[in-house]
Each structure stands twice: as C-alpha cells, then as structure tokens.
Amino acid sequence: MTTPLDRLKAEVCALHAELLRWGLVAWTSGNVSGRLPGSELMVIKPSGLSYDELTPEQMIVCDLDGKVVEGELSPSSDTAAHAYVYRNRPDVGGVVHTHSPYATAWSAVGEPIPCAITAMGDEFGDDIPVGPFALIGDDSIGQGIVATLDGHRSPAVLMRQHGVFTIGKNAKAAVKAAVMCEDVARTVHLARQLGPVSRLPQQDIDRLYDRYQNVYGQAPADKAAAAQAPAAAQTSAAQAPAAPAPAQAPVTVGSEGEPA
Length: 260
Ligand SMILES: [Zn+2]
Fold this sequence. Notes:
disordered C terminus, alpha+beta, binds zinc ion, L-fuculose-1-phosphate Aldolase, 13% strand, 260 residues, single chain
C-alpha cells in the first residue's frame, strides 16, 4: 500500500522530467522539492544524479533543517535553501531551482523582469524580482528567497548572478512557475531587441492577476470556492459559508540538488 510519502517521492521524481521537457536545465543543474503535507518533512532529489536515472526510491527525505531522515544518497546541494523556505513559509508546499538561461541572464545583470505582458500579469502579478547574491553552503540563499518574496505576488525570484527559485502551493505549481518564468524572461528579452518595453499599468496587472488566479481554467475546488465566495457573501450573507482562506494548505514539495 502506498503512503503519502511514497506518492510524494514519485511526484517529485516525475516532476524532474518536466525540467528537461521545458528546457530549464543543463546536465543536473536544477531541482524540485515537495513538502509532505502536515509534517515537518520534505522530499528532495539526490545530488548529482542524471534526471533520466532518477527513481522514486532514490528521493531523499529530509527534515526542515535539511537533515536527511531517509535515503541512501546525499541530498541536493540546494537542500538548505529549500528547507529554509519551508521553515519560514508554511504556505509553501513546493520549491524549484533552475539556471534556465533567459531568466538567469536577467539575474546576471541584476534586473527585475518588468511586468510588460499579460502572461506576466496572470502568473506573477508583478515584476519578477531580483534577490541578493548569495553563495551556496548555508542559509544565505534561503534567506534571500524568503526576504525577496515576502509580501510579493511573484512566485519566482531571480537570485542575483545565480538563477531562479520558485515557490508554489505544491511541487507542481512551483514547476509551473519555473516554466512560466523562463517563458516570460525570453519573451521580454526578445521584445527588448525590437524596442523599448513598457510595464503594464498597475490596475491592469491587478485585474489580470485576480482573474487568472481566481477564475481562469477548469475551476478546481479551491479556485471555485475563492471565485464564488465574494458573490455568496453579497447575495446570501446569512447562509454563505465563510470564504475559504486562500490555498495555504501545506503541500508536498521536493527539492533537488544543484549541480553536483
Ligand atoms: Zn543553482
């Protein structure tokens, strides 16, 4: 019988194939992690293994201090950064790190990606910010991620002269943010080659973000509830259930190591 931990290992393992599929990684230079819901555990990739060799059984289980709890191999060299994010952001269930080329190029010049196209308004609701330069090895990278994204709508941060970290309610959402981050980094870069790029007006960014986050798509339960809650509150305040909190439930996250 599979346990939630088994399922998280399988999910985190499988999501690494998405990094390859979307062209976000070279060799072993990216990682996905997931938080085991309702626990103080995370699942992360072992360090330095090729993506196409990964198996769910190889995934490493760590506590939220980054200490290995289960697994034969060494965890990703980015484990401390992932663990710091989980410790300090209870709403985060997934973390992804890549050196995807266009987004990392923006990080190399230390410039936020301006919110210049509707797709950015949708997914990021703002510019994609730049975090501080920090070397691997302690909590510095995690501190930079958390401090930069605190109070920011963007689930992605460009860590200066390093690469991209994304967060999500679960590992899959964090992978999606990493894919979208690279996509808009490329598009805005290309636009700049053609001429000046203007940020969208804030009120339009706000409308795009609200619609995409609350209405767009096939309305999974959390979105449907969020979208209907305001109407319910207006039309039948007496009977309407309390509006659900924004999706904050801990989700599984997996993190995987940096380049070996
Ligand atoms: Zn890195």
